Amino acid sequence: MNVFVIGIGLIGGSLVLDIKNEYQNATIYGIDNSEEHLNKALALNIIDKKATYKDLDIADIVIISIPVDVSLHVIPKVLDGVHDNCLVLDVGSTKELVCKSVENHSKRRNFLAAHPIAGTEFSGPTAAIRNLYKGKTNIICEVEKTAFKLQEKALEIFSKLGMRIRYMDPKSHDKHIAYVSHLSHISSFMLGKTVIDKEKNERDIFDMAGSGFASTVRLAKSSPAMWTPIFEQNKENVIETLEEYIQNLQHFKLLLAENKFDAIYAEMENTNHIKQILNGIQEVKLQ
Ligand code: NAP
């Protein structure tokens, strides 16, 4: 089985590490615009061989794991180059535009739009890790537009990697993911910025930073090259979530200014409910 991965970073690299482990007959070919990343991926045994787009005719599976703006151009080109039984899998974090970019392609049935909800704040081949997807949710969009045999092939891989599947239309995916992923990243980036700006004047501030700060700004280490096109593609949904978030921040500030500490207590107590929600999700995942 010839598995090609275009973009050997955190997501693509972690996927092929697990695929290689599950499928002894898999040969992993890597395509990346960074020669350094290709060499690193070879040295780390993430890929078996370097490849180019010209080699795609021998691919059985192509995983596209590059920034979402680049995917819009790369996916149609990949579909042009693969044989009729090849599965082309996109794992980008936005789904509406990518699904549109292939809607009229003659090989649309070879394409599956997915978004594994898994990751870390690190990037590049050195960030690739085994078992990243175990117990994680994988959202699949427009499954009915993918050939049945190729759906089965993809589902077998996802199941071997331990992923749970959720089906969603691309528009709903982009709307909901803006809340649970995109907003958290913006909030982390801007919290980091606020503290860095302050630190310019008060050099001791980071000595006081505890684990709460570290865990809240963890996402601010994420790659701008990956996140800028995500925010661009999902701009309208992200703006809507930001407006709601800013309103909540302003409301909190007002309560403080007006000494309404009972209301502040109630706000936090109501939000403590997030514990039950997240524990519920955890329990479902473990089942
Ligand atoms: P990453 O670690 O930065 O890996 C992306 C790789 O693609 C890098 O090696 C990059 O090289 C390369 N690349 C960039 N443009 C390319 C092109 N035109 N052709 C070939 N290779 C190219 O990023 P990632 O976190 O794995 O993200 C990859 C995809 O997964 C994105 O679509 C993202 O939305 C999605 N995703 C990410 C997460 C997450 O938490 N990180 C979760 C789910 C899905 P250079 O660095 O040299 O440009």
UniProtKB/TrEMBL annotation:
At the top level, the lineage of the source is Bacteria
Q: Which GO terms describe its molecular function?
A: prephenate dehydrogenase (NAD+) activity
E.C. code: 1.3.1.12
| SUPFAM superfamilies in the record | 6-phosphogluconate dehydrogenase C-terminal domain-like (SSF48179), NAD(P)-binding Rossmann-fold domains (SSF51735)
Q: Which residues form a coiled coil?
A: none
Which keywords, in A-to-Z order, does the entry hold? Oxidoreductase
Annotated ranges, domain Prephenate/arogenate dehydrogenase: 1-286
Q: Extract the PROSITE patterns matched here.
A: PDH_ADH
List, alphabetically, the InterPro entries matched. 6-PGluconate_DH-like_C_sf, NAD(P)-bd_dom_sf, PDH_C, PDH_N, Preph/Arog_dehydrog, Prephen_DH
Top EC category:
oxidoreductase
Indicate yes or no for the key word Disulfide bond.
no
Q: Does the keyword Oxidoreductase apply?
A: yes
Q: Supply the name of the protein.
A: Prephenate dehydrogenase
**Organism source for this protein?**
Tenacibaculum geojense
Lineage of the native species?
Answer: Bacteria, Pseudomonadati, Bacteroidota, Flavobacteriia, Flavobacteriales
